[in-house]
Amino acid sequence: VGSERMAKTDGGTKKKGKKLNARSLTAESLADSVDDVDILGNLRNGSELATSGSEMSNSSTSLSKLESTPPYKPRRKGSLDSEVSTPSNLSKDENNSCSRSSPWSNKRGSSKCSDTSSNHTEMRVFSSYLAIKEVQKGLKKGELIEGILRINPKKYEDAYITAPDGLTDIYLNGVQSRNGALNGDKVVIQLNLPTSWKIIEENLETYSFTAEDFKLLSAPVSAEELQSLVSMNFGSFSNFEASISEVVKCIEGEAVVSVCEDMSVKTDANDGLSKSPPTLSDENCTNDICILNAPSDCTKNKKSRRGKRQKKNVPKENSTSIAEDEDVLFDSSVTKSQAESHKMLIDSDLPKSIMNNFEELNIEGDLDALVSKDACLRNKDIKESLCSGDNKIETNSTKNISFTVAQLLRHPNWPRFVQRMGKVVYISQKVHPRVAAGYLKLMPDKNPRVALFSPKDHCIPRMKIPKEQCPVDFFSNAHYYEKYLFLAKIKTWNQVGFAIGHLIDILGEKGDIETETKALLLENDINTKDFPYDELNLPSAPWTIPEQEFDYRQDLRNHCIFTIDPSTARDLDDALSCELLPSGHLKIGVHIADVTYFVDYNSKLDEEAVARGTSVYLVDRVIPMLPRVLCDQLCSLNPNEDRLAFSFIATLTADGDIVEEHFSRSVIRSCVKLSYEHAQEMIDEKEIDPLHFPEITNGFSLPDVHQKVLMMNVLAHKLRDKRFKGGALSLDLPKLAFCLDQNSNLPMGFHQYERKDSHKLVEDFMLLANMRVAEHIHKHYPGVALLRKHPSPAIKTFNDTCNLLASVGIHIPGASASALMGFLQSLKGDDIFSTSRLSIIMNMVAKTMKLAKYFCANSSDDPNNFRHYALNVPFYTHFTSPIRRYPDIIVHRMLASTLGYKEGSAYTSDYLTQMTETLNIQKQRAKTVSDTSGEIYLGSYIKSLGTFGGVGMVCNVLDKGFDVHIPNMACTRRVYLQQLDLDSFTMERQNRICILKLLWNPLDGSTEKTLQIITLFTFVKVICSVKTDLINFNVVIPHPLSCDDKDVSEETD
């Protein structure tokens, strides 16, 4: 990993410097976040939707706190509004340095950060974008492709956009191909030459080719055939970066490379020279190289990769190389549990024995046996499992055949083997805010004119910060600023290696919850400013409903109406009512706060709500979409207060069929605010204690409310059963709740948030109201209705997941929501193995799902595109939470217009199409902030304990690491083998089954090495700790024979 550095001398001439070794410098830890997929919109979850547009000035930490510290001499207070701003103190992660292995270096592991250096990466400039007319013309003809850029946070050289034809995602390799675009940006790409597309080697290895396949693929490809293949497979998406004639020239002169089982590489090119094989994680990997066994052996021989001898406490700087083989999701992670003899695992036919081994696993037995002694072998048992001495690998060598991309395009299943590649030629919308939290450091060559800003998010480029923006004494006291976190913004980014940035502000000490939360909000462009109350003309509390409102509203104040919400909720935007009719039918009322009464269209308050888009829910606070006087008082359906509402009232049979329904504006008075715990006690207990409940008002009693909750719960079960029988899908992914210290606001513990019948009761009736409103507004405004759709799963990712699970005997019956729901139900069990395995598989299924999105009905001509996949309904929208979601306000206005309360809809199709794009961005940002807030508090809790132990289950196996799902913590983290005390390790792959064999060094006082087998669904003990980053806390596994757990705290709740 050494690299040669060229630096300018004081005289202006260039002089060759010494080689730098990446291991001589510390490296930033790899981002290890897990993206959850929103399936149902989680109607009552606080993690809904994000805001944007903040100036952040009010969020900056006052520099006065640091002025008393002698080393700090501030120039001026910085803020995002200033063109150039100066922070006060900075932070540096012990494991963070510009030498991190990253796409911003010209070689993996190399470090060339000098401002004056002539290193190749830094001097590479981005390509010019196409003119807007060319882009519009190309998109219209289908010659260019527009999509949202997704950068892999664990392997940030890799980026993707969704292919419009539904096949494998289009791959963008390296920073150069992204051409200045960042994660989330809407980009326009052009496909590269087919000869440069990526061949998915592991899929070739595991595919059972027939003799006919070999005959079809082996013949050379002519220019005419290539033209035909391109036109047939890609249609209009055939305007590559070069002409077909150039492609043919590349094919005619290209070298065909064979990769043998022992990983040696032979080149059959004209020059006959041998080359070293590139790895999948190599940014400079030649994508024409593939591995292909002869058909008779393609399902029998194992691919084996040998890990070099590992030292104890190896620095984390090369951890990025571990994320290999991630190009195809879930492609590298499966085998069997380790309860049986590992002799069988090594020598037997693994696929046939896996499920038998699962059945024989004694889950009720000693858990320690599952995660330690039963998972390892001694030296005498491993002679045939690992290589000895010279670290050579014994393999069954077979005949190797290689194909080019052009040849593989002939195969009917070519998308399984070939991944198209492209490059960004235009950025349609810069969605990413170009702001990052990170650390300020000296340049490696101690350049006195610029400092290095290293973002925490490795998907963002490092920035050069001019000396004038740094603290006065930074260059002489850089060590002082190691403990502080700063905020910086990209000013210009023209070269691959570095962007030019300017420092915005000091955020505080790293590792502090408030500092990390502030950075999280700023990075996601969450508006935390106070509302301009003097401009909004808001009514004050107490407030009385004007008499004229009763002239046209339905007066429901004498009905038994109540709310069910979290005990700490203040923004109560929905209430319920239930009445038993003489016919035996039930009249159900869903009453939603009438926010549009206070928020007039196009008013200043409306503009403020649009700018935020949604309330943002963190662990310890809520950032509201509307002013508090509305959220908590005037709009909130507080008990014993007259409130304006929009009501959906329906008569249903005992089986949940709708007999009659209508919508109306109303006036209601809630008789009680129930918490979910109150409602659950009513459901569970026949007799309830009045002392456990709040006061019931408005002339009703506790038995009255109790009876109605029971009736609604029975009906909710009917609605739920009917929905699932109709083909709906529900993925109940676990979430954490924290217990906070009232004084310090620090976490004192956590537990999994459990969804009980009381939660589901409310959800069922909210879903019913949303679906009925969606059909109603689409019927009246088919061209401008604001709806919410959830597309079907990504075909390629879903198929890969199915194939992966099938290799261990778990078969998904189909891709429909109904089939998936039945499949997941069949996996349920009461033992720890079944629940852990179900959680992993549910996460796998969730990752195949596309995000649900708001859209304007006119933006899609085919009504089939309106469907909500998870709910399996033709129309869906959001109506029930207008206090915290702006889309609900739009829907309220549309509904009011259909009922004659207003003169038609004020919205146009073009306006709503643009609006929904913004709303989708805001929602995703809010969800990111909400999820990451939980990770910050979890990391803080682990940090307070020092170490935190538990039991996890392996959910993904890679070449140099594996992912572990920790059920009690509701999270997945990566274990890097280089951090373990291993003598060596081997990864073997058979079909889609991956096996890691870890040979541990002897424990103190012993001379025997220990073998541990890591496969899919393997139980392992884990030890979590926080080094510097609360979010990306470190996870390792202890020696399998180690019994010293005295210093490890373990969550048992």
Polypeptide structure, described:
The chain has 1053 residues and is α+β, with helices and mostly antiparallel strands. The strands form twelve sheets. It has a seven-stranded mixed beta sheet with strand order 20-27-26-23-22-21-28. The radius of gyration is 30 Å and the shape is globular. Helix 19 (702-725) packs across helix 20 (757-780) and helix 20 (757-780) packs across helix 24 (886-898). The relative contact order is 0.14. The protein has 25 helices and 41 strands. A hairpin with a 7-residue loop joins strand 15 (435-442) and strand 16. Among the domains are: 132-233 and 401-425, OB fold (Dihydrolipoamide Acetyltransferase, E2P) (Beta Barrel), CATH 2.40.50.690; 433-510, OB fold (Dihydrolipoamide Acetyltransferase, E2P) (Beta Barrel), CATH 2.40.50.700; 533-782 and 869-929, no CATH class; 792-849, no CATH class; 946-1036, Nucleic acid-binding proteins (OB fold (Dihydrolipoamide Acetyltransferase, E2P), Beta Barrel), CATH 2.40.50. The protein is 25% helix and 21% strand. The chain starts with 5 loop residues before the first strand and ends with a strand. Belongs to the RNR ribonuclease family. Keywords: Cytoplasm, Exonuclease, Hydrolase, Magnesium, Metal-binding, Nuclease, RNA-binding.
Summarize the model shown.
This protein is α+β, with helices and mostly antiparallel strands. It is built from 25 helices and 41 strands. Among the domains are: 132-233 and 401-425, OB fold (Dihydrolipoamide Acetyltransferase, E2P) (Beta Barrel); 433-510, OB fold (Dihydrolipoamide Acetyltransferase, E2P); 533-782 and 869-929, no CATH class; 792-849, no CATH class; 946-1036, Nucleic acid-binding proteins (OB fold (Dihydrolipoamide Acetyltransferase, E2P), Beta Barrel), CATH 2.40.50.140.
